[in-house]
Amino acid sequence: MRTCPRIIVDSDLNLWRNPISKNNQFQITQSPLEKAFLVGYEMKYAPNQQPRFSVEDSLEELATLARTADLQVEGGTYQRVEHINPNTLIGSGKVEELQHYRDDMGIEVFLFDDELTPRQQRELEKRLTVKVVDRTALILDIFARHARTHEGQLQVELAQYEYRLPRLTRMWTHLARQAGGRAGGASGGVGVRGPGETQLEVDRREIGHKIAHLKRELEKVRAHRGRHRQQRQQAGIPIVALVGYTNAGKSTLLNTLTHADVYTADQLFATLDPTTRRVTLPKGTEILLSDTVGFIQKLPTGLVAAFRATLEGIAEADLLLHVVDVTHPNAFEQAATVNQTLYHLDVGATPTLVALNKIDRLADPDEAVKDLAEFPNSLAISAANGHGLAELLTKIETVLRSKWETMNLRIPYQRSDLVSTLHAQAVIQQEAHHADGTQVEAQVPPHLVGILTPFRV
Predict the structure, then answer these.
(1) Which terminal residue of the chain has fewer beta carbons within 10 Å of its beta carbon, N or C?
(2) Which CATH architecture is the domain 237-401 placed in?
(3) pLDDT of 330-380, one tens digit each?
(4) What is the pTM of this model?
(5) Closest C-alpha to 192, from 202, 183, 200, 201
């Protein structure tokens, strides 16, 4: 398998350094990028409790997120700990080490690979005197950049406000200036503590009102989506939802199969807004193919909640098409993360096919696919050049039709509309006309079975 270029790791210091070369992708061509430094931690787990992603792999992914957010990654470090420090996440000694990196390398942003508590963030910013951003805030920033539809912008804005609300105290630097650097503190001066608290409560109420408004707006979106889903169900068009880890190639696959023009790029969360297109399968079955937001490890729970209206489309799908990037060194771990997220969305019972994507990038695709043989119901494809897509569409149709039921029907002539429906949505095997109606033997999709049952013979 192809391996991603990695940041050099100093095993003695657990320090990642950005290698310098003539092909350095961080070369500044326009305005200077902010210099970022990655920080992670690794718990001392028992052998049978190891996390799915190693700390190095998780930091490598964080570096990719940072690049997507237009940050220049100068290096990174991590620490093995037995207990989480409630004040700084990492120990005081590690914080001092970060101060040295800040001074020696001109670091402007420290990126932490896990979500920080408000207390930890305040303490770290106080000690490091530069911006401290955790993984959740970084993902929210990327989502804000890439959300283009009104719905997507509402969802991101809601997640941002819910993330910021408990961290509100650190945002009011004007209070610190009024109080000589200690807003509301012992030396803040008479009259400062009260107004500071009043201002904070005002701002909390303001954000609370905005959160409530955004939730109401998203409920309207949810209701609108629900009406559309009902129309699709009545029309009897099966829904196939594309799911997968971010940057697995879902949007590229949608574009290739439907000739759509969904934005694609080799970066995490290139597209956020859901897109649905109609596809005709080899034997004539029409489906709606729906793209969804990509998943990622440590996906903020607030984002999952905010994108509930979008993710409900996954729950309504007749089939899930799980797209896996077989070229990624953590393909198995990424697939497991997606499956875990789907489990939390209560869609574990939905039939699933696995598309092993990007085999065009492999030197020996057949050998690589053998390595991934443990993926059930999988096919090797290339969304970029179309390899294996005909077989994929046939397999999708086979799975969908496996749920269809063979029915022998006698339909009276006054219900000729049902015969027309069968011709449009079912597979007619035999048809004959009699004095009392039309005799039809057909393979019928599930949504028509109840309607046609009274005419069964």
Answers:
(1) C
(2) 3-Layer(aba) Sandwich (3.40)
(3) 888 999 999 888 888 788 778 899 999 999 888 876 665 666 667 778 899
(4) 0.77
(5) 183
